[in-house]
């Protein structure tokens, strides 16, 4: 279970995706967007740009059928925290410059600059789904919109699909396909937008249990 959990945790947090890893993905830009799709993307950019803070419970589904729950805090630009319900004690923190992943079993952390991770796509201050981000797919069904994007310079680093409810427009989930083709989906439950968040949430600190180890 632990061997499967670590990549799922990282995918859930959009974190630490290796930019130059060998990949089975062959993402290509979506063949020309229609005018209606371009207008929807403009609405999505405006909506996401207006989400400065967010707190939400979530359910994370792995490709192996596993389900785990947790809480997400997000403060744009470049700050995020993701924690899981016990017995999982791994967590992810983006502190404004780096994304940290705490592996509680090994009692150690890994880190990477935010700009080198998938987290950068939704944590940046001014979000545009163009330029260094490429839209690879756009799907609209009834009141649901799905937009899939990759990093333009490194499409093999993974694909992020943002899933929205429409009327009104709201982010409901995201889905990551990693360089090995594994899929992780995170569904937001009762998200609260525009809430006041303690900045201490976005400071990485080792758990007290790690500091007490021999």
UniProtKB/TrEMBL annotation:
<protein>
    <submittedName>
        <fullName>Outer membrane lipoprotein carrier protein LolA</fullName>
    </submittedName>
</protein>
<keyword id="KW-0732">Signal</keyword>
<keyword id="KW-0449">Lipoprotein</keyword>
<dbReference type="InterPro" id="IPR029046">
    <property type="entry name" value="LolA/LolB/LppX"/>
</dbReference>
<feature type="signal peptide">
    <location>
        <begin position="1"/>
        <end position="27"/>
    </location>
</feature>
<dbReference type="Pfam" id="PF03548">
    <property type="entry name" value="LolA"/>
</dbReference>
<dbReference type="InterPro" id="IPR004564">
    <property type="entry name" value="OM_lipoprot_carrier_LolA-like"/>
</dbReference>
């Amino acid at each position: 279970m632990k061997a499967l959990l670590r990549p799922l945790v990282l995918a859930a947090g959009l974190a630490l995706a290796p930019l130059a890893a060998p990949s089975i993905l062959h993402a290509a830009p979506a063949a020309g967007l229609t005018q209606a799709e371009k207008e929807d993307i403009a609405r999505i950019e405006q909506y996401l740009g207006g989400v400065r803070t967010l707190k939400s419970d979530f359910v994370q589904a792995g490709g192996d059928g596993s389900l785990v729950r947790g809480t997400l805090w997000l403060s744009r630009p470049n700050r995020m925290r993701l924690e899981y319900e016990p017995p999982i004690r791994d967590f992810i923190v983006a502190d404004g410059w780096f994304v940290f992943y705490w592996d509680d079993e090994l009692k150690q952390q890994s880190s990477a600059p935010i700009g080198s991770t998938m987290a950068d796509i939704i944590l940046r201050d001014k979000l545009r789904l163009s330029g260094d981000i490429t839209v690879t797919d756009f799907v609209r069904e009834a009141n649901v919109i799905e937009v899939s994007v990759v990093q333009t310079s490194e499409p093999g680093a993974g694909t992020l699909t943002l899933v929205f409810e429409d009327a009104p427009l709201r982010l409901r989930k995201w889905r990551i396909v990693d360089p090995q083709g594994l899929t992780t989906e995170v569904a937001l439950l009762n998200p609260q937008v525009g809430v006041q968040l303690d900045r201490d949430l976005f400071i990485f600190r080792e758990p007290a249990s790690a500091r007490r180890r021999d």
